[in-house]
Amino acid sequence: MTYAKPVPRINADNRAFWEGCRQHELKFQQCAKCSQVRWPPSDLCPQCHSTDTDWLSSKGFGTVYTFAVYHAAFHPGFKADVPYTVAVVALDEGPRLLTNIVGCPPDQVRCDMPVEVTWQEVDEGITLPKFRPISNDPASAYEPWP
User: Fold this and answer.
1) How far, in Å, CA of 117 to CA of 27, rounded?
2) Which of 32, 78, 143, 145 could form a disulfide with 73 if both were Cys (CB 3.0 to 4.6 A apart)?
3) Helix, strand, or coil here: 85?
4) What are 19-30's pLDDT values in tens digits?
């Protein structure tokens, strides 16, 4: 079956992020000088202007910062998904990521709702990070970033 939705364009700047996703790991640039975590990736730290960069592995937890529920498919590939939720998730490590909320009816999504990453395998080259509400189960693995 062919994936009918648009897929990200991988380039030299975002390759480490998408390679991490294939391994089910969220990776973000972190300034080696001031420790600022940033997304999207860039050659220059927006905080201190250093060009020294490391890659940080996120725990994959955060909260819904803002969201919109789509009731119309603006691309034919999304027709079967309507209504669906597009959100900006504020990750515990600092970056905000545009993504989808899954595993939750759109009318139950709320700002500040705790979420965790889950993965959608698109093909051998692309795995998409999506987010689902964190279970109310006390055995949940959620531990806020310090």
Assistant:
1) 12
2) 78
3) strand
4) 999 999 999 999
8 A C-beta contact, residue 134 and residue 115 = yes
pLDDT tens string 30-43? 999 999 999 999 99
In angstroms, rounded to a whole number, what is the distance separating the alpha carbons of residues 3 and 44?
Answer: 34
Which two structure tokens, joined as six digits, stand for 15?
A: 């390759």
Tell me how long the chain is: 146
Rounded average pLDDT per 10-residue block, the chain, 146 residues: 88 95 97 96 95 96 98 95 97 97 96 97 94 72 42
Q: Can you give the residue range of the structural domain that contains 28?
A: 15-133
Long-range contacts of 41-44 (CB under 8 A, 24+ apart): 41/13, 41/14, 41/16, 41/17, 42/13, 43/13
d(CA 4, CA 20): 23
CA 22 to chain centre: 13
**Tokens 């309507």, residue located:** 82
